[in-house]
Amino acid sequence: MPQKKISFLFLLLHIISFNFAFSQKISEVDKIVAKYPKSFNTTEKLAERIEKDFDSDAERARAIYAWIAFNIKYDYNAFLNPPRVQGFSYSSEAEKQRKIKQLNDNLIQKAFKSQKAVCEGFTALYQNLAEQVGLKCEIIRGDSKTRLADIGRKNTSSNHAWNMVLVDKKWRLIDVTWGQGYYDSNKGRMVNDYDPIYFDTDPDYFFAKHFPDSGTFLGNRLSKDDFLNGPLIYNKTIENDYKIKTPDSGIIQAKNGDKITIEIKNVSKANQVFYLNRKNQPVKVLNPKEKRGGLEFQILVDNNIGDYITIFIDTNSIVSFKII
After folding, report:
1. Where are the alpha helices (DSSP H) in the chain?
2. Euclidean distance between CA atoms 268 and 270, whole angstroms
3. Which residue windows are coiled coil (predicted)?
4. Phi/psi class of residue 88: alpha, beta or left (left: φ > 0; alpha: ψ in -120 to 50)?
């Protein structure tokens, strides 16, 4: 499922964050991969090129991410009109596994040759290339949180897929589907916009927008309620490490005259902070206070407040809450 970019005055989606030194190092990988051919005859040829150009597992993992995100486009038509599920019969477990492998190989080749895919194709191709260059990689299926309506949903659903790749004895979270671009509802089409923030995302941020079907990460139980009821965060939130300290729930119960206290870490008075009212008009936050390495401010609940409040910092959407 693609991210949606709904224009500056409403919503804007994307994400990621990683260590500054690490990001500086692997940004050079992007520059090299950007000069690669836009297509290769086989996945083996692409894997060989990556192995030749890069020595470390971290660089190879990033190179695969970058090439896929640069060159494979999200197939929005296939998302709207998914093909029928392919069934098959088998007489033994070995035959079953052969047929599953064949279906998966067909999915990988279709994504690679047509250069179009939905999340299943992106993740299968990433895993295939990762394993060819000697990396251990898994495909994870689960739920995604991208819309205001996702705040306070009752249940999760299996609507998305992403990867985990083992680099330097640590599992890295990767969503190359979201890294390649987004759907622009104003233009009615996909927009190619490479975003590195979905490579090696901090788990705290990643699982604010992803929830695996297993409900676990590396053996640890994740909170389904925190995922469903938490606030909706955006790319710049993670990119700039804007931690939402208060409130910790995405659902705020309030009546006219109440004041909602919001505290965001790594923001200062030098930043412009505002929210949108019911008419999507920007309202500047008044009298913010610097507190514990962040900014604390209040929003008065009145008739101008809509069903949701989205906080902006310097024109970038940062967090949304549902108002009850």
Report:
1. 20-33, 43-53, 57-71, 76-80, 93-114, 119-132, 176-179, 203-209, 224-229, 235-239
2. 5
3. none
4. beta
Domain count across the chain:
2
| Alpha-helical segments (H) within 84-185 | 93-114, 119-132, 176-179
Could you tell me the two tokens for 294? 């962040």
Tell me the percentage of the chain whose pLDDT exceeds 70: 86
Structural domain containing residue 252: 244-323
Is the bond into 203 cis (omega within 30 degrees of 0)?
no
Longest dimension (CA), the chain: 71
Pairing of strands 116-117, 137-144: unpaired
How far is it, in rounded angstroms, from Cα 279 to Cα 136?
49
Predicted confidence (pLDDT) at residue 2 exceeds the cutoff of 70 = no
Which tokens belong to 153? 């949903």
CB 174 within 8 A of CB 65: yes
Residues 217, 264 within the same domain: no
Beta carbons of 194 and 19 less than 8 angstroms apart = no
Distance CA 79, CA 248 (A): 33
Backbone torsions φ then ψ of 126, nearest 5 degrees: -60, -45
Domain C-terminal end among 199, 231, 263: 231
Nearest to 160 by CA among 108, 110, 112, 121: 121
Residue predicted with more confidence, 249 or 183: 249
CATH assignment at residue 156: 3.10.620
Mean pLDDT of the 67-95 span:
78
Nearest to 233 by CA among 224, 243, 247: 243
Does residue 152 carry a pLDDT above 60? yes
